[in-house]
Amino acid sequence: MKPVPVLRCAPLWRIGVLARALAWFACAARALLLLAAGVTLLAACRKPPATPAAVVPDVTVTTVVQQDTPVDFEFTAQTQSSREVEIRSRVDGFLDKRMYVEGQVVKAGQTMFQMDSKPFEAALQTARGQLAQQQARLEVAKANLARVEPLAAQNALSKKDLDDAVGNEKQSAAAVIAARGEVDTALLNLGYTTIKSPLTGLSSFARQQDGSYVTATANGLLTYVYQLNPMWVNFSISENEMLKYRDQIATGQLKFPAHNNFEVELILADGSQFSQTGRIDFTNPAFNTETGTFLVRAVFDNPKGLLRPGQFVRARISGAIRPNSILVPQRAVLQGAKSHFVWVVDDQSKAHQRVIEVGDWHGDDWFVSEGLKAGERIVVDGALRVAAGAQLKIVAAPAVANSAASAPATQAAGAPAQGSSSGASQ
Question: Where are the domains of the chain?
Answer without folding.
Answer: 66-80+228-406, 91-113+196-219, 117-192
